[in-house]
UniProtKB/TrEMBL annotation:
Species: Algibacter agarivorans
SUPFAM superfamilies, alphabetized: TPR-like
Keyword Signal: yes
SusD-like N-terminal domain residues: 110-240
Annotated signal peptide: 1-34
Predominant subcellular localization, coarse grouping: membrane
Domain RagB/SusD: residue ranges: 384-520
UniProt family annotation: Belongs to the SusD family.
KW Phosphoprotein (keyword) present: no
Lineage per the UniProt record: Bacteria, Pseudomonadati, Bacteroidota, Flavobacteriia, Flavobacteriales
Localization: Cell outer membrane
Protein name, UniProt field: RagB/SusD family nutrient uptake outer membrane protein
Keywords: Cell outer membrane, Membrane, Signal
Coiled coil: none
Amino acid sequence: MCMLTLIIKMKKMKTKKISSLFLLSVLIASITSCNEGFLDENPTTFVTPNALLVDKNGAETYLIGAYDAVQNIVSSGGNGVDGWAIHWGTIGTDEVVVPPWGGDRKLIYLQQLTPTNNTVRSIWENLYVALNRVNSVVDRIGAMTANQIDIEDRDNFVAQAKFLRSTINFALVSTWENVPLIKNEVTSLDNLEVPQAAPDKVYEFIIEDLKAAAAILPAEQGGGRVTKGAAQALLGKVYLQMTGFPLNQTDKFALASAILKDVMDSGVYNLLASYPDVFSLDNEQSVEMVYSIGMEGPGKNEGGLLSTFYGPNGNVNNGGGWGTCFINQNFEASYDRDDIRLLNNIAKHNANDWTPEDGMSNPDAWTVAKNNWRGWKWHAPQDGASPNDTPFDNPYIRYADVLLMYAEALNGQGLLTQEVIDMTVNKLRSRARMTPTAVPDMVLGSSEENATALLDERRKELCLEGWRRNDLIRFGKYKEAISGITQGGPNAGDPGTEYQDFEIRWPVPNSEIQINPSLDPDLSPGYY
């Protein structure tokens, strides 16, 4: 339940007091998190924030709560949480189709959402729960004094939390457009009926947070911890999103190219030589990962969904997937046949009969009918090691994304050159090429031709990582992409016949509007 919603409900029920222990149990519900070393804390006692925030160790434990807050909701999901990256970023796009038994996911795919949709409500509420937990970290650690913690350490911890807060606010404003902008921890029953802010105001706050974080954090690959490059890369992504609907602020192309060039010039990041290796458990925090959300499984209550939500036909105990969605056949057809990304990202085999290695490289294994092809980027082993609690980290921003965003930002200014294309797009295509004549290089064209090529490249390179819907909206191609889905087989239908322009955003949940009269249903036009 959304913390803001919960407190409002209690207020309406005449509840006079919420104990600090209860607030903490909701706001910082868990301070165990990712699988990297600094997140391996597993506390066995429960203390209030005031008792915890007395030194650096306590502050770092509290900071882990912020990482935990975003772990499942901003990512593709896990631990019973519907992840934003799957449901917003992938399901309602031209990467996948959803079968008739898809439940709420079917309604997202078919563009049949209503304000009472449970998954939309759940994601809204969990994002605001996460936001309040991270706000608590920013506010409370930020208030610590030099007698309690070295100021440099304090500011570093706050900077990390501000990045995490930006991932939440970016998800909110991307998805709903007009959302309550809550800048501080909610601890009081007063003044809780927060109205929606215009999207430009939310973006301004995100930019402020990311600039502040980038100014403090170290330039390094953080192994799961936020660093300078992560803040800069996300800032570049935010600037680019502002160039499209609904703001259409094309002046942000120049800001995006400048900050993304800083990431490229830092010397911290690079592409791995092999595309499949990027998604291997052995390379989860490689130099290609600018920021990746850590997961750990199975059986540790810290796993994700990546190799089961997206996985081959066959039993999950054999490395198969759930069958929750299938690959859009037009997407599969867009790949060159000798593009390694096609073989790595789309499963045409049955995991019961073939190993992941054979499933990817042996044509004899490709026996599954095309209507049943599955997404497949994170290859679970055929030994039952991660049936429903997968250990694969969730890439948030990869260096490959930085390269493509940089080319996009220059193209938006009319400054894209063949030299830049060669060091960005063609560098990725070279890595994807399995034969000398496969995956032809991109050649500079008109700005419109370049944009089409860049959007297509983003889908081939970044599919299933949760950015497709934002990309389509930013490029002004969302309606076109949805309307172009025509596929038979075990499919809930084609969404283009259902789509209306207002569905470019999700509706603010009706339950929230009923509780908070400051929320304006007219800011979800078409849904009310």
